[in-house]
Amino acid sequence: MDDASDSFETVEPIGMRVVIRKDEDKKETKGGIQLPDNIEIPTITGRIVSVSAEVEITAELPLKQYDKVLFNPKGAIPVDFEGDNRLFVVDVENVVAVFRKT
């Protein structure tokens, strides 16, 4: 099989799911203490990079592409699509908050 045919350009979620790019893990505490490289504060925020067609047409779900969200990482499925492994497919029920500017 040709390597070019194996490469993907996009990931489109199916069903009531979104694809989230997880924010970088923090290497420093709020107080300014630098953490060793092997210790990270887990971050469960990120930006929606793709929504399924089903989510897009559901008016009760206020989720759109580029929204910053808080999500439960237990149900998140990692996507081995990029080298940094920060993409996750997440059920909308695991998206617990959307950050909005007022």
Would you give an account of this structure?
It contains 2 helices and 6 strands. The protein has helices at 3-6, 53-57; strands at 17-22, 45-51, 68-71, 77-79, 87-91, 95-99. A hairpin with a 7-residue loop joins β4 and β5 (87-91). The longest helix has 5 residues, at 53-57. The radius of gyration is 16 Å and the shape is globular. The termini are far apart.
In a few lines, what is going on in this structure?
With 102 residues, this protein is mainly beta. The chain has helices at residues 3-6, 53-57; strands spanning 17-22, 45-51, 68-71, 77-79, 87-91, 95-99.
List keywords for this structure.
102 residues, mainly beta, single chain, 9% helix, globular, 6-stranded antiparallel β-sheet, 29% strand, 2 helices, 6 strands
Strand arrangement within the widest β-sheet reads 4-5-1-2-3-6
* Main sheet properties: 6 strands, antiparallel
The pLDDT mean sits at: 83
In percent, how much strand structure appears in the residues? 25-35%
SSE inventory with pairings:
Layout: H1 3-6, E1 17-22, E2 45-51, H2 53-57, E3 68-71, E4 77-79, E5 87-91, E6 95-99
Antiparallel strand pairs: 1-2, 1-5, 2-3, 3-6, 4-5
